[in-house]
Design brief:
Layout: H1 7-16, E1 25-29, H2 40-48, E2 54-57, E3 61-62, E4 68-73, E5 79-85, H3 93-107, E6 113-117, H4 123-126, E7 133-138, H5 152-162, E8 165-168, H6 171-177, E9 184-186, H7 193-197, E10 216-220, H8 229-238, E11 243-247, E12 264-268, H9 275-279, E13 284-287, H10 302-308, E14 313-315, H11 319-326, E15 332-333, H12 337-349, H13 353-363, H14 368-387
Parallel strand pairs: 1-2, 1-6, 2-5, 3-5, 6-7, 7-8, 8-9, 10-11, 10-13, 11-12, 13-14, 14-15
Antiparallel strand pairs: 4-5
Helix pairs in contact: 2-14, 8-12
């Protein structure tokens, strides 16, 4: 006689199921390129795609080709959609993008959907849409970043007025946003522990850094206005034998302003899959962030990733690193060059089994899987609330769009 499947098996089967007509599509509006750096949106949306069709709408690329949408299907069936505009698009760019999006919705029969925003600027071409629900995952205070549009704050107020649920990328950002909406929840940076724990195993040195002697102090991430370049310069100068390994793209700043020294090594971008092999060859991991408007609300994803890799962490006093990592003794905090050098020296000298027991205990409480599960509960609540309302029909044909 057949027995009923266990609840665990039912949960597993549900998680691996493809999207059904009862589950709305997830249409994501983002300022980040899907292939740029594997970070919060990728971790969350690849998990979302287990149940939903997921469409990621990137910002336009300006080129000499025809106006179009390039669509590619990536891992887990995620559709990445890239608008292409000419340098001088005919008419209003936001109106053109709205027409392209409407045509895309018709082509892919996107009727019942949730809009999931990473950038408030997307309100300019999506305000006419009628989704089942609106999610705003506010991972950064974008208005404080270099080159932010002057209308960013106004568009964010518009998005907050329309959103059904708001997530923030850290607790400091939550404190700023929690009075702006009735349904705000903090979800700080998480980690795929198993992925980065690969760095703890003995392995050959990554070929890109095999020529660099030890001790190695490493950083991976985007190199932009948030990095304290003068701090890097002074640390490298104070300890010429230390090798500073910098992995990541340089954006929004002139590469000519980067500090140059024989012991500073810029290795460029590396894939997410390759990061553990680089971390394995480091002695200390760094978070050398400047203290400015652009870093006031950040919650660096790399903090728990460094720790999962088994590397001591030295950071400047970013609030979401100080609390909880600094307060719990999981990372050393220092701002001026002398203090930073001393913190690195202490990290190089330590062999603290107790510290790593504390690190591993902390890491059991955080994972992208758990973060997504908790976020999805909130999303499910607002989707159920919206299910009673009529969903939008396919957009009518838009002029000028094939």
């Amino acid at each position: 006689m057949a027995t009923a499947p266990s609840s665990r098996r039912r949960s597993s089967e549900a998680t691996s199921a493809i999207a059904t007509p009862q589950l709305p599509d997830i249409v994501t509006l983002t300022h980040l390129r899907w292939d740029f750096v594997f970070q919060r949106p990728q971790h969350l949306l690849t998990r979302c795609a287990r149940l939903h069709r997921v469409f990621v709408i990137e910002e336009p690329i300006i080129d000499d080709g025809p106006t179009r949408l390039d669509v590619t299907v990536r891992q887990h069936g995620i559709h990445v959609v890239v608008p292409h505009f000419s340098a001088r698009p005919a008419g209003d760019a936001a109106a053109l993008q709205a027409r392209l999006l409407d045509g895309f919705f018709r082509d892919h029969r996107i009727r019942d959907y949730v809009l999931w925003y990473y950038t408030p600027m997307a309100m300019e071409f999506t305000r006419h849409l009628r989704p089942r629900a609106v999610v705003y995952d506010c991972m950064d205070e974008l208005s404080a970043f270099a080159g932010a549009p002057a209308s960013m704050r106004e568009r964010e107020q518009e998005l907050l007025a329309r959103a059904d649920v708001v997530f923030t990328g850290g607790h400091t950002l939550y404190e700023k946003k929690r009075h702006s909406h009735a349904n705000v929840h903090p979800f700080p940076s998480s980690v795929d522990v198993a992925h980065f724990a690969r760095a703890r195993a003995s392995q050959p040195d990554a070929s890109g850094q095999a020529h660099i002697p030890h001790p190695r102090l490493g950083f991976f991430g985007v190199v932009d206005e948030r990095m304290d370049l003068e701090l890097l310069r002074q640390v490298a100068s104070a300890r010429p034998a230390w090798q500073l390994v910098i992995i990541g793209p340089v954006v929004k700043i002139d590469p000519a302003v980067l500090p140059v020294a024989a012991n500073i090594h810029y290795l460029g971008s590396k894939s997410y899959d390759d990061l553990p092999s680089y971390l394995a060859g480091w002695d200390v991991a760094l978070l050398p962030f400047a203290r400015n408007d652009a870093t006031r609300y950040i919650s660096p994803t790399k903090t728990p990733e460094y720790l999962a890799a088994g590397k001591p962490v030295v950071s400047t006093s970013i609030r979401d690193v100080v609390r909880p990592y600094g307060i719990q003794g999981l990372a050393r905090i220092a701002d001026d060059p002398d203090e930073f050098v001393a913190a690195v020296e202490a990290s190089l000298a330590e062999d603290s089994a107790e510290r790593w027991r504390q690190v591993d205990a902390f890491l059991t409480q955080t994972s992208w899987e758990g973060t997504w599960t908790r976020m999805y509960r909130h999303v499910s609540e607002v989707m159920r609330a919206g299910q009673c309302e009529p969903t939008s029909a396919l957009p009518a044909a838009a002029p000028g769009v094939a």
